[in-house]
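Annex B. Sample input.
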Amino acid sequence: GGTLNKVGSFLMQAKHVGADTALARIVEMVRQAQNSKPAIGRLADRIASVFVPSVLIIAVLTCLAWYNFGPDPRVSYMLVTTMTVLIIACPCALGLATPIAIMVGVGKAAEHGILIRNGEALQRAGSLDTVVLDKTGTVTEGRPALTVVEPGSDFNEAGLLRLAAAIEQGSEHPLAEAVLQAARERDIVWPAVEDFAAVEGQGVHGCVEGSKVLFGNAKLMADNGIEPGRLVARAEALACDAQTPMFLAVDGRIAGLLAVSDPIKADSHEAIARLQAEGIRVVLLTGDNRATAEAVARTVGVDEVIAEVLPGEKADKVAMLQGEGCVVGMVGDGINDAPALAGADVGFAIGTGTDVAIESADVTLMRGSLHGVADAIAVSRATVRNIKQNLFGAFIYNVVGIPVAAGVLYLFGGPLLNPVIAGAAMALSSVTVVSNANRLRFFQPRVRGGGRP
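Annex B, continued. Sample output.
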């Protein structure tokens, strides 16, 4: 299933099953996004598709030239040169250039806690020019804590927190866990909730001890005709301090304000600065209110914020950026991030996140740090650079070797290339490619302690 029950027991009624459930719809969205990704053509395959026929044509021409115009014994010269061309042009190095580099690159990434699902993701990561970051659990710790309980005139702190815990006991949101944990720490016993319902992107409501209770953001209050009054200014101040304010109303009247804060990861600012130093555009994408999102963005050095996004809209925002011509990487950890992770050019899942997010992503960051994104991009660029070096070396080797094998030097008084030497040279080219690929084992994505990568 798609639900994790951490504490206590519950009574569940299944209103939708199978393909009609929210989880099944998310899985279907993920499948569609994954299937829509264009396959990356293998550069080596494209080269080989031209190289192999070209070599065969050169071998035939060499054969005909030596047979018709060569010295006696013509057949011997013809056989030696033709075989030498075919031996020295054996495309072993060309075939090894890409897979050996990808194998080493994926292994190097794994050393740094980066699990890459396939070679295509490794190649694409280096071409990213935009990275979209989810806020909760990605930029922040994902362990929010209650920081403010400000009751109205008719409530005290304990009474307000008791009602908030009662209504939140039916919610799966991380902010709900912060409220419930605070109530437990104060030994508050909360009553049962009836007719509980969650309003996407706004909050929750239900009946507690016969009273209708609403708990959520300002939009939830406005949609129900409730005026928060003096608490609006207090909520704005808390939001500017990177806290998430939530209003609680009872029977149509505002009862108080609670605020939750999610600590920012210690290395988020440094990791984001690394991405920006590489010329990568960083965007913060969150369902939180704009003031809170902008406060977090200022703290970590992000200039562009897309806030108050409903869970189902995250993939649309990623698609919008792709429509602008951006090559987009998405970093997230939650179930609601899964379609966006699958729809991005490269999806990065935080390893401490949900299984659905990890399954949807191309890359999993096992250490949970945003440095993993910068490291993955650095490894990708180093790997692609290594592949190009391998292909260039294999190509130059054949450009030089094939004419020599065909007997060009003989025309100017030089020797014919011995087929045994041609075989050794062919093997040496493969050794060169493998050795160059293994240089990646010594590559370090970044110098720890604030140095440049």
